[in-house]
């Protein structure tokens, strides 16, 4: 009997050890119904809790309110199946029944008498998301930042040698391409951030060089690595101040890598600003006749947007109270952000990023910058720089401000559709081939923004895939414009014609690039558009007709420009006899891009796998999945 008695005692002891930790995990949360400063507000209006936590509403004395659950953030009436505190009361407290907070989900509620005044709130019941972080055993990401700078300094040392700068730049960018490929494959398709590194910069301010990559950033790192050597080769015969020209390209590559691999808001902003400086000088020094106007307009638009973005970053830093600019730490503290705070800060960040996407109506700097920039500048601008805006939106704004992102979904959808249609319509009316490609970028990036606006895993994945696909094919379009300008001295489509018979192989490449850019199945753009449109149909139904019509316009301006520029009768407005096959330094970059576009069009899973995992991680952190 004694043995049995002690056996039961031990069983009870171990049972308590098993259950007590689970019971202890439940936390108590309080929501004020009205405050001394504002009588018609729930404080906090947004509360994140774990399943099983307790939530108690406490009335501020003398304020007549009640609490009633509704179906969603826009509903005004009690849903009859949720919780309700009862009739209006002026004091006391009330606890939500535990079975409402036991399961993950979103609980929306209002004060029935004051719902018209906006007295509503939300409780997100979600297990605390774990942000996986894996620090690397070798500083691969630091090497990505350092080696382009070393190359730029090396070029400066040989500035009096006209041949050395391009050779040094080529070997430097080939080395960084190798590093970017290594980073892409070492990061793999796992969840969370990989290959992380941290170097404390200003500990009292919470600033550090925090580096890391995931499935959202590795495609952009790979894209930056690919575009680097292609740009150098295409600009192989640059004769005007070659040391400064190629040095600026390498400095820009360092800054672009920095934007895509840093996880600190302050350092992110520093790299973001550094990117603008080399591009400004590339346009201002090597640009066309109207380069002064284009360069100043470029810096005014992009710098002003950056300042607005910085205001948003500082608001996040002060509101989070974590004494750190780490995107990870601030994101973990976002449960303290009210809905209004999230909306206003997301608005600031969205404007800052939308200018760089660029989205209508902040797009007007882009055509001028592209038309006046040297071809190498246009390649970098279209291939990588335009991706900074959408990447920043997905990395620095949406995960940390989920309610703000949700509020702006209609705005993003409208701007995306307008950008698609407006950009395509303007492209259809352009005579300058370079300006046509510039407006086509507005349309294509509108498709990517549309994918983000779906707030779905497939939509996010399609958006990032579009960023990559556009990032390789749009530079090829600018290369084509450069080839035509170099050979016949003009990019005006009506003045061209009959060129295909004089350069049949090169014209064949041009045709493939144009077809890939318009979304030919089997090439990368088609995969991206298909993913985005499926996601948009699932979230918005037959509104899909509007962006689909934009694809009709896209096919129209591509094919019409191609027919007028390459085929038909020989043009009498150019010296047609000067037309010849493109030289090797122009031919092979275009050919390499075609190979990449076909490869990722046929085997999209190499990109889609890591992108999809990162998209799921973002949505899971937001509480959307």
Q: How would you summarize this macromolecular structure in one to three sentences?
A:
The protein has 22 helices and 11 strands.
List keywords for this structure.
alpha/beta, elongated, four-stranded mixed β-sheet, 625 residues, disordered N terminus
Ordered list of secondary-structure elements with their pairings:
Blueprint: H1 2-24, E1 28-33, E2 42-43, E3 46-49, E4 54-59, E5 68-70, E6 93-95, H2 98-101, E7 105-110, E8 120-125, E9 133-135, H3 140-157, H4 164-187, E10 193-202, E11 207-213, H5 218-234, H6 242-261, H7 265-286, H8 291-320, H9 327-332, H10 339-356, H11 365-372, H12 375-385, H13 387-397, H14 402-407, H15 409-428, H16 433-453, H17 457-488, H18 504-518, H19 524-540, H20 545-566, H21 584-602, H22 605-622
Parallel strand pairs: 1-4, 3-8, 9-10
Antiparallel strand pairs: 1-2, 4-6, 5-7, 7-8, 10-11
């Amino acid at each position: 009997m004694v043995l049995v008695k002690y056996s039961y005692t031990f069983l009870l002891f171990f049972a308590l050890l098993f259950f007590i930790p689970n019971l202890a995990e439940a936390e108590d949360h309080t929501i004020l119904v009205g405050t001394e400063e504002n009588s018609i507000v729930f404080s906090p209006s947004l509360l994140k809790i774990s399943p099983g936590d307790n939530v108690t509403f406490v009335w501020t004395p003398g304020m007549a309110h009640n609490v009633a659950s509704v179906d969603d953030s826009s509903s005004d009436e009690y849903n009859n199946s949720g919780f309700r505190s009862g009739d209006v009361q002026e004091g006391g407290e009330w606890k939500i029944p535990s079975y409402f907070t036991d399961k993950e989900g979103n609980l929306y509620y209002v004060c029935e008498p004051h719902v018209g005044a906006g007295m509503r709130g939300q409780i997100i019941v979600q297990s605390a998301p774990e942000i996986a972080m894996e620090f690397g055993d070798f500083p691969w990401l630091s090497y990505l930042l350092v080696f382009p700078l070393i190359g730029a300094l090396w070029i400066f040392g040989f500035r009096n040698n006209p041949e050395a700068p391009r050779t040094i730049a080529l070997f430097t960018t080939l080395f960084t391409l190798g590093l970017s490929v290594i980073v892409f494959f070492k990061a793999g398709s796992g969840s969370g951030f990989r290959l992380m590194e941290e170097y404390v910069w200003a500990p009292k301010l919470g600033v550090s060089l925090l580096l890391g990559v995931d499935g959202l950033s590795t495609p952009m790192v790979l894209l930056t690595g690919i575009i680097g050597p292609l740009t150098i080769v295409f600009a192989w015969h640059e004769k005007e101040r070659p040391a400064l020209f190629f040095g600026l390209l390498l400095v820009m590559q360092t800054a672009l890598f920095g934007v895509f691999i840093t996880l600190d808001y302050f350092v992110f902003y520093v790299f973001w600003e550094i990117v603008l400086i080399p591009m400004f000088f590339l346009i201002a020094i090597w640009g066309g006749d109207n380069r002064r106007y284009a360069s100043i307009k470029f810096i005014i638009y992009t710098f002003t947007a950056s300042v607005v973005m910085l205001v948003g970053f500082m608001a996040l830093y002060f509101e989070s109270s974590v004494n750190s600019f780490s995107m990870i730490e601030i994101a973990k503290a976002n449960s303290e952000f009210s809905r209004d705070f999230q909306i206003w800060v997301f608005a600031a960040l969205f404007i800052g990023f939308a200018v760089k996407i660029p989205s209508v109506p902040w797009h007007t700097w882009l055509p001028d910058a592209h038309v006046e920039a040297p071809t190498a500048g246009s390649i970098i601008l279209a291939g990588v720089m335009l991706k900074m805006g959408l990447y920043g939106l997905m990395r620095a704004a949406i995960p940390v401000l989920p309610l703000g992102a949700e509020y702006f979904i209609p705005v993003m959808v409208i701007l995306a559709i307008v950008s698609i249609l407006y950009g395509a319509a303007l492209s259809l009316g352009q005579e300058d081939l370079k300006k046509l490609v510039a407006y086509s970028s507005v349309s294509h990036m509108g498709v990517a923004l549309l994918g983000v606006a779906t707030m779905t895993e497939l939509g996010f994945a399609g958006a990032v895939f579009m960023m990559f696909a556009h990032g390789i094919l749009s530079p090829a379009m600018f290369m084509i414009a450069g080839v035509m300008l170099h050979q016949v001295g003009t990019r005006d489509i009506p003045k061209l014609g009959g060129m295909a018979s004089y350069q049949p192989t090169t014209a064949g490449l041009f045709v493939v690039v144009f077809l890939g850019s318009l979304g030919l199945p089997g090439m990368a753009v088609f995969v991206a558009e298909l993913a985005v449109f499926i996601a948009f149909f699932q979230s918005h139904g037959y509104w899909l007709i509007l962006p689909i019509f934009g694809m009709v316009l896209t096919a129209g301006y591509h094919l019409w420009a191609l027919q007028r520029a390459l085929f038909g009768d020989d043009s009498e407005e150019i010296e047609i006899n000067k037309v010849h096959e493109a030289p090797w330094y122009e031919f092979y970059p275009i050919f390499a891009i075609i190979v990449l576009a076909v490869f990722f069009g046929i085997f999209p899973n190499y990109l889609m796998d890591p992108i999809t995992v990162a998209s799921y991680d973002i949505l899971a952190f937001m509480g959307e999945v």
